[in-house]
Design brief:
CATH architecture of one domain: 3-Layer(aba) Sandwich
Structural class: alpha/beta
Mean pLDDT: 82
Number of helices: 30
Strand order of the largest sheet: 7-6-5-8-9-11-10
Number of strands: 11
Strand content: 5-15%
Largest sheet: 7 strands, mixed
CATH topology of one domain: Rossmann fold
């Protein structure tokens, strides 16, 4: 039985880790790839898991726990496919057109509710597993929970490794099927070791096995049929699951549309956007010989660049799958542009390409990407990227960046977004020209330059023999009207609260979120705008309030409450540090989608090691141990600040050393959190009767702390205050917690000294 329960914990860890990564990727499609909603997804996941853990202790006798644990595995085997199908059909259910931005609040509510069946069951499963473990071991306070925690995190590690090596390239439907098989097997083993009872449960497990067989064996065929649910009203031409994201090509009448993680990147027949970007950018330079294009070459802009007769065009595209799709489905003109000998395609991250390229030899750099709605795209709208571009521009070189825009309706949210990019560019470039239209084009130069002259541009147009459909002389002259330009510039300069966009503070994503909300909920957009104006004193005040509440709660002889506070703050710090790690990794390395499972595996490996070590030393653990853990968390958070500042100053790079540093950071976070869990359990449960709700409650408190961090850090602190400020606040909170946790130990030492002084006169 003991081995069966241990295997159940491992299965729980594998299911939770792989299921979490899988559903996060599916929900990224719902939220158009916005990584900050990873925090919201984790909030929903942890909320329902905490609720399930709180109810998981309703097993009266430990002897009933194995059967309940087998039922929990059956529930997981059924709930995961159901939740997966529900999320896959989310855009149709929400009435969101393909490529369109969904109504944010209904999408958030939908994802929150959709996760409930699976996560509630997983949270309950842990508490039930601890009760089953107690049936064969002595119920020493904290030991059973610590052992279960260690086996569960071992499953996390195994799941992360399997997904990063195998699952990332498999169809998600097949992954869901094999996860169901694993849970059915674990449930059947528990029934087998429990004796002949439970025939009905065994039959249900066999029925679940047969129901999951098509998904596990023919997942790709089923996945292709389910893929059409994501694009209602359009024909799915082809979709691919790349290591960098989900790619899809759809057709609407005669137009091909290119999607990545639900975000519309461009269309095949989109000459107006391609012509405006390419020709306005290259006409700003007197003789563009070397051109660098970052992203979006498959929508026709590459062919427009070649009309200016450059000597060399470097086209940087992260995912080779996009080029394969463009060559397969694009028109003859697109294929001819890619095959041109002047075009050199580099399958690389744009920022990493610049890092390795020779400085000072590029005449024009074009960034052909959507608005900074995700941190992956926001990396090309930050000061650090603009600094790298400036170093690589030749004298007189031009950087062209564009945003979707509406010059005739400049609401405060759009003004704030446009002003942030304008100020970020102005911080690195001497001159920034604004060319507003249905999109605004920023033209930045390192040397001071006068405003664009229409006559000079039109002369270059004639000289180069251009013959366009949309970027024609009358349209160019309209884009260069001084009154129109100055109106937009004045609107940007009036937004004094707009902040510079940085890797460590991706504020443009928050401004884009507010602009997103404006389309559906103006009041919510106004609230998001005010939230973006908050500063670090608000975070400091919140941290002080939490520290005071903790100090007041554990005063006197309420030491058990110290364990609950320790678990809550420990899990809060872990989640805040994890989200800061993920955002920093995305900013510097640029492929979080690919490496997410590996980071989580490193995190969970640290948790497993920490929990196992703490369980062995549990007899000596007390408030002093808890104080030491919080002190180490504070020191680690403070040490991470200069590390992040250093790599942001040095610029982005995805070298092996940097990736190892991030993985070590994750393992350290996990080790401290894993060590704290059994210790905090022991402090909380010591002196209490072995109640049936105890384990569920302490695990629920642990999850509730992570839940709060996912909401506060993911959606507010990191994008608004920045990763470094967030880590500083977490370090300060843990320093206060260490001081509070050390008080019982110091008081006991002081009392012992007082007793010794009192005894001395009597002895003499």
């Amino acid at each position: 039985m003991n081995r069966a329960v241990a295997g159940s914990f491992v299965t729980l860890g594998v299911s939770a880790l792989v299921g979490q990564v899988l559903l996060v990727r599916e929900l990224a499609f719902v939220f158009s790839g916005n990584e900050f909603f990873i925090g919201w997804t984790l909030f929903g996941w942890l909320f329902w898991s905490a609720l399930g853990a709180g109810f998981g202790g309703r097993i009266g006798r430990a002897e009933k726990a194995p059967r309940s644990l087998a039922l929990a595995h059956l529930w997981a085997a059924a709930a995961l496919p159901a939740v997966f199908l529900l999320i896959r059909a989310s855009r149709s259910l929400l009435g969101t057109l393909p490529g369109a931005v969904p109504d944010l609040l209904p999408a958030m509510a939908f994802s929150f509710v959709a996760l409930a069946p699976l996560c509630f069951g997983l949270g309950r499963q842990f508490a039930v597993g601890v009760r089953a473990w107690e049936a064969g071991h002595s119920p020493e306070p904290g030991r059973s929970a610590g052992c279960g925690y260690a086996f569960e995190t071992a499953g996390f590690v195994l799941g992360g490794l399997l997904f990063s090596w195998i699952g990332v390239v498999l169809d998600p439907v097949r992954v869901v099927g094999w996860l169901g098989f694993l849970n059915v097997a674990a449930g059947y083993v528990l029934c087998a070791v429990g004796g002949r009872r439970g025939i009905g449960l065994r039959l249900a497990l066999v029925a679940a096995l047969l129901a999951l067989a098509p998904a596990a064996l023919r997942g790709e065929r089923i996945g292709r049929r389910l893929e059409a649910w994501r694009f209602p009203g359009q024909v799915l031409v082809e979709s691919r699951q790349s290591i960098y994201g989900h790619l899809a090509v759809t057709a609407l009448d005669r137009q091909l549309n290119y999607h990545e993680n639900g975000l519309l990147l461009g269309a095949e027949n989109e000459p107006q956007a391609s012509e405006n970007l390419a020709h306005l950018a290259l006409l700003a330079h007197p003789a563009p010989r070397r051109v660098l294009l970052i992203g979006g070459g498959f929508n026709g802009v590459l062919g427009e660049i070649l009309k200016h007769a450059p000597e060399r065009v470097d086209y940087v595209e992260l995912d080779p799958a996009w080029i394969a799709l463009a060559q397969k489905h694009g028109g003859a003109a697109r294929r001819a542009a890619l095959a041109d000998p002047r075009v050199h395609v580099a399958f690389d991250d744009g920022r990493h390409f610049l890092k390795r390229a020779a400085p000072g030899n590029v005449d024009v750099v074009l960034v052909n990407l959507p608005n900074p709605a995700t941190t992956l795209i926001n990396r090309y709208y930050v000061r650090e990227f603009f600094r790298d571009v400036r170093r690589h521009l030749a004298p007189g070189g031009v950087l062209a960046v564009r945003l979707a825009f509406a010059p005739d309706y400049l609401g405060p949210e759009l003004e704030r977004l446009g002003a942030s990019i304008y100020r970020t560019l102005s911080a690195e470039f001497a001159a920034v020209a604004l060319l507003p239209d249905y999109e605004i084009l920023y033209l930045a130069t390192a040397e001071p330059a006068p405003p664009p002259a229409a006559d000079e541009w039109l002369a270059r147009y004639e000289q180069r023999g251009l013959d366009n459909d949309f970027a024609i002389p009358p349209a160019i002259r309209l884009r260069l009207e001084t009154d129109r330009i100055e109106k937009v510039r004045a609107a940007f300069e009036s937004q004094t609260a707009a902040q510079i966009n940085r890797d460590g503070r991706p504020i443009a994503c928050q401004y884009q979120l507010a602009y997103w909300l404006r389309s559906f909920h103006p009041r919510a957009a106004a609230a998001a705008t005010r939230l973006g104006e908050t500063t670090w004193p608000w975070g400091a005040a919140a941290a002080v309030a939490v520290a005071l509440a903790m100090a007041f709660s554990v005063r006197g002889r309420r030491t058990p409450r110290l364990g609950a506070w320790g678990m809550g703050l420990g899990s809060f710090s872990l989640m805040a540090g994890e989200l800061a790690l993920l955002i920093a990794f995305q900013a510097q390395c640029g492929f979080l989608y690919y490496k997410l499972a590996r980071i989580l595996a490193a995190l969970m490996a640290g948790m497993a090691a920490g929990a196992a070590l703490a369980t062995r030393r549990l007899a000596r653990a007390g408030p002093g141990t808890l104080a030491a853990i919080h002190l180490l968390v504070a020191v680690g958070g403070a040490a991470a600040i200069p590390f992040l500042r250093g790599i942001e100053t040095a610029g982005a790079g995805a070298g092996t050393g940097l990736q190892i540093a991030f993985l070590a950071w994750a393992a350290m976070l996990g080790g401290l959190a894993g060590y704290e869990f059994p210790v905090a359990n022991r402090i909380y449960l010591a002196g209490r009767p072995a109640g049936r709700h105890s384990v569920g409650i302490v695990y629920a408190v642990d999850l509730a702390g992570s839940c709060a961090a996912a909401l506060l850090a993911g959606l507010w602190a990191i994008p608004v205050l920045g990763t470094q400020t967030t880590l500083g606040l977490v370090a300060g909170l843990n320093l206060a917690a260490a001081a509070i946790a050390a008080r019982p130990m110091l008081a006991a030492a002081g009392g012992a000294c007082d007793d010794e002084e009192e005894e001395r006169p009597r002895a003499s």
